[in-house]
Amino acid sequence: MTHHQQGSKVAGETSRKIIAALQVSLDGLIEGPNGELDWIGSWEDSFDLLPDIDTCILGGAMYPGYEQYWLSVLADPDGVLPFTGKPPSKGEIEYARFADKTPHVVLSQTLESVAWRTAQIARDVADIRGLKQAPGKKIHAVGGASLVSTLMNERLVDELRLTVHPLVLGKGKPLFKDVDGRHRLELLETTPLAGGRVRLTYDVA
Predict the structure, then answer these.
(1) Closest CA to 48 of 193, 148, 158, 146
(2) Structural domain boundaries of the chain?
(3) CA angle 188-93-29, nearest 5°?
(4) Cα(147)–Cα(48) distance, rounded to whole angstroms?
(5) Contact present, 145 and 17 (Cβ < 8 Å)
(6) What would the pLDDT profile of 167-198 be if each residue is shown by its tens digit?
(7) Using one digit for the tens of pLDDT, what is the confidence trace for 6-27?
(8) Could you say which of 125, 155, 170, 201 is the most buried, measured as most Cβ atoms within 10 Å of its Cβ?
Protein backbone atom coordinates (compact mmCIF):
# COMPACT_ATOMS: atom_id res chain seq x y z
CA MET A 1 0.00 0.00 0.00
CA THR A 2 1.44 3.31 -1.06
CA HIS A 3 0.13 6.81 -0.43
CA HIS A 4 1.90 9.95 -1.60
CA GLN A 5 1.19 13.38 -0.21
CA GLN A 6 1.85 16.53 -2.18
CA GLY A 7 2.41 20.10 -1.05
CA SER A 8 2.57 19.54 2.71
CA LYS A 9 5.16 22.26 3.27
CA VAL A 10 4.68 26.00 3.19
CA ALA A 11 4.32 27.38 -0.34
CA GLY A 12 7.47 29.01 -1.62
CA GLU A 13 9.78 27.20 0.77
CA THR A 14 13.21 26.87 -0.83
CA SER A 15 15.30 25.12 1.83
CA ARG A 16 16.64 21.62 1.24
CA LYS A 17 14.88 18.75 2.96
CA ILE A 18 16.60 16.85 5.74
CA ILE A 19 15.60 13.18 5.75
CA ALA A 20 16.35 11.22 8.93
CA ALA A 21 16.59 7.58 7.86
CA LEU A 22 17.41 4.83 10.36
CA GLN A 23 16.94 1.13 11.04
CA VAL A 24 14.86 0.35 14.13
CA SER A 25 13.38 -2.62 15.94
CA LEU A 26 9.61 -2.96 16.18
CA ASP A 27 9.78 -1.41 19.67
CA GLY A 28 11.61 1.66 18.39
CA LEU A 29 15.18 0.84 19.46
CA ILE A 30 18.32 1.37 17.38
CA GLU A 31 20.70 -0.69 19.55
CA GLY A 32 20.42 -3.53 22.03
CA PRO A 33 21.19 -2.95 25.76
CA ASN A 34 24.93 -3.46 25.19
CA GLY A 35 25.06 -1.65 21.85
CA GLU A 36 24.21 -4.80 19.85
CA LEU A 37 23.73 -4.23 16.12
CA ASP A 38 23.89 -7.85 14.94
CA TRP A 39 20.14 -7.90 14.31
CA ILE A 40 20.46 -5.38 11.46
CA GLY A 41 22.36 -7.76 9.16
CA SER A 42 23.19 -5.29 6.38
CA TRP A 43 23.94 -1.56 6.25
CA GLU A 44 23.13 -1.09 2.57
CA ASP A 45 20.68 1.66 1.61
CA SER A 46 17.26 0.26 2.52
CA PHE A 47 15.72 3.73 2.34
CA ASP A 48 15.91 4.37 -1.43
CA LEU A 49 17.88 7.55 -0.71
CA LEU A 50 21.06 7.58 -2.77
CA PRO A 51 19.72 9.17 -5.98
CA ASP A 52 18.19 12.08 -4.04
CA ILE A 53 20.88 13.15 -1.55
CA ASP A 54 24.28 14.83 -1.82
CA THR A 55 25.16 15.41 1.86
CA CYS A 56 25.13 13.28 5.04
CA ILE A 57 24.92 14.45 8.67
CA LEU A 58 26.04 12.32 11.61
CA GLY A 59 26.38 12.74 15.35
CA GLY A 60 29.76 12.59 17.04
CA ALA A 61 28.98 9.41 18.99
CA MET A 62 27.97 7.46 15.88
CA TYR A 63 30.56 8.77 13.45
CA PRO A 64 33.74 6.87 14.53
CA GLY A 65 32.09 3.46 14.04
CA TYR A 66 30.53 4.62 10.76
CA GLU A 67 33.91 5.78 9.50
CA GLN A 68 35.62 2.54 10.54
CA TYR A 69 32.98 0.37 8.90
CA TRP A 70 32.80 2.07 5.52
CA LEU A 71 36.53 2.67 5.21
CA SER A 72 36.95 -1.09 5.88
CA VAL A 73 34.57 -1.83 3.00
CA LEU A 74 36.52 0.47 0.68
CA ALA A 75 39.88 -0.97 1.74
CA ASP A 76 38.87 -4.61 1.22
CA PRO A 77 35.48 -5.21 -0.46
CA ASP A 78 35.98 -8.97 -0.19
CA GLY A 79 37.13 -9.02 3.44
CA VAL A 80 35.27 -9.82 6.65
CA LEU A 81 33.89 -6.66 8.23
CA PRO A 82 33.69 -5.40 11.80
CA PHE A 83 30.17 -5.52 13.33
CA THR A 84 28.77 -8.10 10.87
CA GLY A 85 31.60 -10.65 10.75
CA LYS A 86 31.02 -11.28 7.03
CA PRO A 87 31.99 -9.74 3.68
CA PRO A 88 30.00 -6.69 2.53
CA SER A 89 26.98 -7.12 0.29
CA LYS A 90 26.79 -5.59 -3.16
CA GLY A 91 24.55 -2.86 -1.73
CA GLU A 92 27.04 -2.08 1.04
CA ILE A 93 29.86 -1.72 -1.50
CA GLU A 94 27.64 0.65 -3.48
CA TYR A 95 26.95 2.75 -0.37
CA ALA A 96 30.64 2.84 0.59
CA ARG A 97 31.57 4.19 -2.84
CA PHE A 98 28.77 6.75 -2.61
CA ALA A 99 29.92 7.85 0.85
CA ASP A 100 33.52 8.15 -0.34
CA LYS A 101 32.56 10.99 -2.69
CA THR A 102 29.76 12.61 -0.65
CA PRO A 103 30.28 15.41 1.92
CA HIS A 104 29.68 14.33 5.52
CA VAL A 105 29.05 16.83 8.31
CA VAL A 106 29.63 15.53 11.85
CA LEU A 107 27.79 17.56 14.50
CA SER A 108 29.87 17.33 17.67
CA GLN A 109 31.25 19.60 20.36
CA THR A 110 33.75 17.01 21.56
CA LEU A 111 35.05 15.03 18.56
CA GLU A 112 38.59 16.23 17.82
CA SER A 113 39.20 14.92 14.32
CA VAL A 114 37.90 12.81 11.46
CA ALA A 115 39.98 10.64 9.12
CA TRP A 116 37.69 10.41 6.11
CA ARG A 117 38.47 13.00 3.45
CA THR A 118 34.76 13.58 2.79
CA ALA A 119 34.01 14.52 6.42
CA GLN A 120 34.18 17.76 8.40
CA ILE A 121 33.16 18.66 11.95
CA ALA A 122 30.43 21.19 12.75
CA ARG A 123 30.28 22.50 16.32
CA ASP A 124 26.82 24.08 16.34
CA VAL A 125 23.36 23.19 15.05
CA ALA A 126 23.32 26.62 13.40
CA ASP A 127 25.79 25.14 10.88
CA ILE A 128 23.17 22.54 9.97
CA ARG A 129 20.55 25.24 9.57
CA GLY A 130 22.90 27.05 7.19
CA LEU A 131 23.56 23.83 5.28
CA LYS A 132 19.84 23.39 4.82
CA GLN A 133 19.61 26.81 3.13
CA ALA A 134 22.52 26.13 0.76
CA PRO A 135 21.89 24.92 -2.81
CA GLY A 136 21.88 21.19 -3.45
CA LYS A 137 19.93 17.97 -3.19
CA LYS A 138 18.31 16.58 -0.06
CA ILE A 139 20.35 15.86 3.08
CA HIS A 140 20.49 12.49 4.88
CA ALA A 141 20.56 12.60 8.68
CA VAL A 142 22.23 9.22 9.22
CA GLY A 143 22.04 9.21 13.05
CA GLY A 144 22.35 8.42 15.85
CA ALA A 145 19.57 9.02 18.34
CA SER A 146 21.01 12.20 19.89
CA LEU A 147 21.50 13.83 16.48
CA VAL A 148 17.98 12.98 15.32
CA SER A 149 16.51 14.26 18.60
CA THR A 150 18.49 17.50 18.32
CA LEU A 151 17.40 18.09 14.74
CA MET A 152 13.76 17.29 15.51
CA ASN A 153 13.77 19.61 18.51
CA GLU A 154 15.12 22.36 16.25
CA ARG A 155 12.40 21.59 13.67
CA LEU A 156 15.03 20.75 11.06
CA VAL A 157 13.82 17.27 10.09
CA ASP A 158 11.38 17.28 7.16
CA GLU A 159 10.97 13.55 6.63
CA LEU A 160 11.51 10.30 8.53
CA ARG A 161 12.29 7.02 6.78
CA LEU A 162 12.38 4.06 9.15
CA THR A 163 13.29 0.51 8.18
CA VAL A 164 11.44 -1.47 10.85
CA HIS A 165 12.80 -4.94 11.63
CA PRO A 166 10.45 -7.73 12.76
CA LEU A 167 11.87 -8.19 16.24
CA VAL A 168 11.42 -6.77 19.72
CA LEU A 169 14.69 -5.98 21.49
CA GLY A 170 13.01 -5.27 24.83
CA LYS A 171 15.87 -3.12 26.11
CA GLY A 172 18.32 -0.81 24.39
CA LYS A 173 18.64 2.71 23.00
CA PRO A 174 15.37 4.36 21.90
CA LEU A 175 15.55 6.38 18.69
CA PHE A 176 13.51 9.26 20.07
CA LYS A 177 14.90 9.23 23.61
CA ASP A 178 15.69 12.97 23.74
CA VAL A 179 12.87 14.40 21.62
CA ASP A 180 11.02 17.20 23.41
CA GLY A 181 7.25 17.28 23.24
CA ARG A 182 4.91 15.96 20.60
CA HIS A 183 5.72 15.79 16.90
CA ARG A 184 2.86 15.02 14.54
CA LEU A 185 3.73 12.83 11.54
CA GLU A 186 1.87 12.09 8.33
CA LEU A 187 2.37 8.72 6.65
CA LEU A 188 3.55 9.13 3.06
CA GLU A 189 4.46 5.60 2.07
CA THR A 190 4.60 2.04 3.37
CA THR A 191 6.98 -0.32 1.55
CA PRO A 192 7.42 -4.04 2.37
CA LEU A 193 11.07 -5.16 2.20
CA ALA A 194 12.84 -8.52 2.26
CA GLY A 195 13.03 -10.49 5.49
CA GLY A 196 9.79 -9.17 6.93
CA ARG A 197 11.08 -5.61 7.19
CA VAL A 198 8.90 -2.59 6.39
CA ARG A 199 9.99 0.89 5.33
CA LEU A 200 7.78 3.64 6.74
CA THR A 201 8.09 7.15 5.28
CA TYR A 202 6.64 10.07 7.23
CA ASP A 203 6.31 13.79 6.64
CA VAL A 204 7.29 15.65 9.82
CA ALA A 205 4.89 18.50 10.54
Answers:
(1) 193
(2) 18-204
(3) 45
(4) 21
(5) no
(6) 999 999 999 989 998 899 999 999 999 999 99
(7) 333 443 356 899 999 999 999 9
(8) 201
List pLDDT tens digits, range 90-107: 999 999 999 999 999 999
Residue range 113-140: average pLDDT?
A: 95
In order, the DSSP letters of 137-149 are SEEEEEE-HHHHH
Contact 133, 156 (CB under 8 A): no
Q: Are 47 and 161 a contacting pair, CB within 8 Å?
A: yes
Q: Is residue 178 classed as helix, strand or coil in its secondary structure?
A: coil
pLDDT at 110: 94
User: Regarding beta strands 53-59 and 185-192, do their DSSP bridges make them parallel or antiparallel, or are they unpaired?
Assistant: unpaired
The one-letter code for the residue type at 180 is D
Structural element, H or E, at residue 189: strand 185-192
- Give the β-pairing of 173-174 and 119-122: unpaired
How many other β-carbons are positioned within 10 Å of the β-carbon of residue 78? Answer: 7
Fold assignment, 18-204 = Dihydrofolate Reductase, subunit A (3.40.430)
φ and ψ at residue 73, rounded to 5 degrees: -65, -45
Q: CA dist 53 to 155, 189, 202, Å?
A: 19, 18, 17
